[in-house]
Amino acid sequence: MLKPCWTRRKSEYVIDSRFLRIRRDEIELPGGTVLPEYYVRESNGFVMVFALAKERKVVLVRQYRYAADSIGLELPAGMVEDGEAPEACARRELLEETGYDAGEMRLLGAFAAEPVRSTAKAYLYMAPRARRVAKPTPDSTECLELELVDIDDFRSMLADGRIDNLATLAAGYRALAERTDVR
Prior knowledge:
By secondary structure, the chain is of the alpha+beta class. Helices cover 20% and strands 42% of the residues. It has helices at 86-98, 151-160, 166-178; strands at residues 7-16, 21-28, 34-42, 46-53, 57-65, 70-74, 77-79, 100-101, 106-112, 121-127, 131-132, 144-150. Strands 4, 5, 6, 7, 9, 10 and 12 form a seven-stranded mixed beta sheet that branches. Strand 2 and strand 3 (34-42) form a beta hairpin.
């Protein structure tokens, strides 16, 4: 397929904050149709870390999410800051949210998080030999608890709905597929 030529006729930022940057574009499609309000979320992306500690334990966080007003079980994750490399972000988030560190940090892939409306990439890292080195120091906006889950239980949680965050589901299955020695 050839990439169609969508022409941006106008653009303005309607939200421009540390946590959210949204622009409103006026787009003209190849056939002449004009979309006066096409919203795009600009983002440096985010990381997710599949960290495996001793005794085949997956390092997770149980976290409150305000927009959904719910608590869920997730892989450690966070936004890539301006000027920050994704791997540095992965190491920072793993340490801040869980107190765990990993010598080896391997990129499993960079994926389009929501290509219809966002520029964000989701970077998935594998930390196969994570170890606890400190107490968690979450951001002021984070309400979370560390949880270690046996890898077989983690697999079951993905399948039975106890983990219902789509990003963690996709990342969890991708990480499990990568690791033949964790089955």
